[in-house]
Amino acid sequence: MSFQGDVRGIGLAELLQGLARGRKEGLLSLGGSDRSSCLIGLLDGRLILLPDEDEDETSLANRIRIANSHGLEDAVEEKELETLGHADRLEHLYCLLDGGEVHFRFDPGELERLEADICPNSGTQLEFILLEYARICDELEGFPSLSFLAPNAVPQWVNPALAESVSERVRGNIDGRSTIGEIGDRLGWPIRQTRLTLAGLFQAGALRLSTDQELLALTLQEMEMRQFSRACQRLRAWIELCPPGPLHPDVAAVLTEEWISGRLP
User: Fold this and answer.
1) What's the CA gap between 84 and 78, in Å, rounded?
2) Cα distance between residue 196 and residue 136, in whole Å
């Protein structure tokens, strides 16, 4: 028999713990007051983050292409889609755990009967998810604000020798051309995990943000390579960072040339 209700704050974690400890099997639908949502399959104490009706596979595929500088018609592997989709679902769950009122509905029963698309032995133990969430929350308290690490911002190396605290894979994805969002998409991480990791490198003095001149140069490079979606992201970051007032004559001349060439619609 299904049941539903509303929880707030720590109540969501307690609800998840109660269902997991009771070895309940079924589908748990969560919806936040900010329209965030999450669909969870529960099986033998494990949580399986499932795609809900709001997940757009086409959008995920385009993000993968943009993050890897691929063409918009290039094929995307199923594993890449699942990795990025899982990262987004985990971020949605984190947002719901952050607080605010959450409406839930639990439909008990065998997941196969409920037509949930799962693989054998898939899912993660609830304790691991909650511990990782708590770790990220604790570390985020060390940074008053991460608003400067916008998804469209492009980090640049200052001293890579100060980045020994992160893996070679993370260091390799910080290439001076990629936005923070693209770095996270290639790593397959929730956006808050990406921003937290990079914030530590900024605090250590290993990274800095691109200047408005560098962002404009990156925009032009991407347009020359006909990577227009990537160019748009860097152009947005440039607009946000560019000082107010009339454009510098050199910048105005560059943008005029791009407009005349047809690369800047």
Assistant:
1) 10
2) 8
Closest by CA to 254, choosing from 218, 212, 220, 210, is 220
Residue 41: is it exposed, middle or buried by C-beta count within 10 angstroms (0-12/13-18/19+)?
buried
CA 90 to chain centre: 9
> 31-57, pLDDT tens digit by residue?
998 888 999 999 888 899 999 888 999
Closest CA to 193 of 141, 133, 125, 152: 133
CB contact set of 54 (below 8 Å; sequence gap of 6+): 37
- 247 within 8 A of 255, measured Cβ to Cβ: yes
What is the Cα–Cα distance from 14 to 126, expressed in whole angstroms? Answer: 11
- Provide, for the chain, the percentages of residues in helix, strand and coil under a 3-state DSSP scheme, each rounded to the nearest 5: 50, 15, 35
> What's the CA gap between 98 and 33, in Å, rounded?
12
Contact 223, 242 (CB under 8 A): no
Look at the block and give the residue holding tokens 């699942």: 82
Helices 212-224 and 249-261, interaxial angle, to 10°? 20
pLDDT tens digits along 202-232: 999 999 999 999 999 999 999 889 898 999 9
The pTM assigned to this predicted structure is 0.89
pLDDT of res. 113: 59
